[in-house]
Design a protein that fits this description.
- The protein contains 19 helices and twelve strands.
- It is of the alpha/beta class.
- It has an eight-stranded mixed β-sheet with strand order 3-4-6-5-7-8-9-12, with helices on both faces.
- Helix 11 packs antiparallel against helix 12 and helix 15 packs across helix 16.
């Protein structure tokens, strides 16, 4: 439809569209099982049948298997399209509600077709009332136009998929590939030069490449990475079998077994969130089950959001607790929606670095420095893949994650409009001006009972330990006698740092996201730019 009517928008059901999308992506599992069945059948044939007929049969089975496998990205894409339609309709309905509330407050009536007039029982028809009515009518029209735009985008993308399905999913492999670690702008330019068929071929045949390239559209990375979920789980199961094969396992193997079990549980919880079909839709932008596990997940599509938060967690973060860390990003997003229901916001959990597990590791800035280039590329990638006017991008670091953000901003630069540090042990900078974001857009909060406040080299022994464990301290000229030095430099929540401070209630080192904590509102308002 080219336009959306007032009653039509009121009747629209965003949750119904989300459920429909989840049903489409839910077909990927049965499809994978059918592909596996064809693969097994081919293996059995090769084991007991030879000759020209056997070769022809095997070729046909392989072709059928490839045709079926090529459908999976399209099923995921339908889910993405319908989820984004649902998000657009939800925002439009929120704007509609705001306009109706505005009319009620001004003594105006909105009829069933969306017409606006003065309520003679409440307000006299004056010039001022006419101006108010015109303002409400404009707000209503903006809401309807937003719904119509979301509808057109969804219809166009579904039409493209239908045409691709009619033409067949087969395509010759595209030439050339970006080098590992290529600049996001170059990656984006390469992708733009491919045909839709070539892009789909890459997603289906080289998901490991597509899933990790910063600068590609979020939708493409999500499709590619979802195709690899079974393979990642198989890697962890194989690791567990290798460890169990050692009899007796020994203490080190037992520790590793617990780690594998935690990552398996974390992966399963993450898959549950990816397939839940709830709002906002989750986009899988990266995953690595090795080591402690790394993961990058977005809630909502950053490529189509007005506001984008990137959250970097700190010490002990890993795949085993990815869902818990994602929950923190989700709570900020929920507050954004409550404060500004007419804005489209997205939040990303960025855990694409080796977070310290022990205090001895956390005493060094080494792992933060190692993470800097990857965080820099990721933020650049969000900027170049965004569709439409640039989003307001905020990067939030908690605990050791605040050092990751600070070092990345200071040493590499971050494509960010605002930086937020909560529960910080210092960020590797002595003043907000070193971080390369607009004046007034460096924010911090520290709870009065946060143990991180004790992370100070208070005596000569502590200062020596600091300089030995964190050479960055010497570079920044520590120790300092101001009383505002933390382990990694000037406390960003000290007004003398040059940033802006928002309050936090009591809740210790992890309570910033607790319901009712003013810090949660503070984070959301920075994301929104309010």
């Amino acid at each position: 439809m080219s336009s959306v009517g007032y009653r039509q928008l009121w009747a629209a059901d965003p949750d119904g569209w989300r459920a429909a999308g989840a049903a489409w992506t839910g077909l990927v599992g049965p499809l994978d099982r059918r592909v596996g069945g064809l693969r097994a059948a081919g293996g059995r044939l090769r084991g007991g049948w030879t000759g020209a007929a056997a070769t022809a049969a095997a070729t046909r089975l392989t072709g059928l298997r490839d045709e079926l496998a090529s459908i999976a990205p399209a099923l995921i894409e339908v889910d993405q399209v319908l989820a984004e339609l649902a998000g657009g309709l939800a925002v439009a309905k929120a704007r509609l509600s705001q306009a109706v509330a505005q009319a009620e407050a001004a003594g105006l009536l909105v009829d069933r077709s969306g017409g606006v007039r003065v309520d003679p029982a409440r307000v006299r028809p004056t010039e001022r009332a006419g101006v108010a009515a015109a303002g409400v009518a404009a707000a209503l029209r903006a809401a309807l136009d937003g719904a119509a735009a979301a509808d057109r985008v969804a219809a166009d993308r579904l039409d493209d998929l239908a045409r691709a399905a009619g033409a067949g999913w087969a395509s010759p492999p595209p030439p050339g590939r970006p080098a590992p670690g290529a600049a996001p702008a170059l990656v984006s330019s390469w992708w733009s030069g491919l045909t839709p068929a070539q892009r789909r071929w890459l997603i289906g045949h080289e998901p490991a490449l597509v899933g990790r390239l910063d600068g590609l559209p979020v939708a493409a990375r999500d499709q590619a990475n979802r195709l690899r979920l079974d393979a990642w789980r198989a890697e962890l199961l194989a690791e567990r079998r290798r460890l169990l094969s050692r009899v007796p396992p020994g203490p080190l193997a037992s520790i590793r077994l617990r780690g594998v079990a935690g990552r398996l549980a974390g992966l399963d919880a993450l898959v549950g969130r990816l397939t839940a079909g709830g709002a906002p839709r989750a986009y899988l932008l990266g995953l690595d089950p090795a080591g402690e596990g790394r993961v990058v997940v977005a809630l909502g599509d950053p490529d189509h959001a007005d506001r984008v938060l990137t959250y970097v967690p700190g010490m002990t973060a890993g795949l085993d607790d990815a869902s818990g860390e994602l929950g923190r990003a989700a709570r900020v997003l929920e507050r954004c929606a409550a404060i500004a229901p007419g804005d489209r916001s997205a939040a990303v959990l960025w855990l694409d670095y080796d977070a310290p597990d022990l205090l001895t590791e956390a005493a060094s800035a080494g792992q933060a420095r190692d993470a800097g280039p990857a965080l820099h590329r990721f933020q650049e990638g969000l900027r170049v893949s965004h569709d439409g006017p640039p989003a307001r991008q905020t990067v939030l670091g908690h605990s050791y994650g605040s050092l990751v953000v600070g070092v990345a901003a200071r040493e590499h630069g971050l494509a960010a409009d605002a930086l937020v540090f909560v529960g910080s042990p210092g960020i590797g900078a002595s003043h907000a001006a070193e971080l390369g974001v607009p004046p007034g857009e460096v924010w911090a909060s520290s709870a009065p009972d946060d143990v991180i406040r004790a992370a100070r080299p208070a005596d000569e022994l502590g200062r020596r330990a600091l300089l030995g464990a964190a050479p960055l301290a010497a570079v920044l000229g520590w120790p300092d006698r101001t009383g505002h030095e933390l382990w990694f430099g000037h406390d960003p929540s000290d007004p003398g740092f040059g940033g802006r401070v928002f309050g936090s209630g009591r809740g210790g080192h992890t309570g910033y996201w607790d319901p009712g904590n003013p810090a949660l509102d503070g984070m959301a308002r920075v994301v929104l730019g309010r």
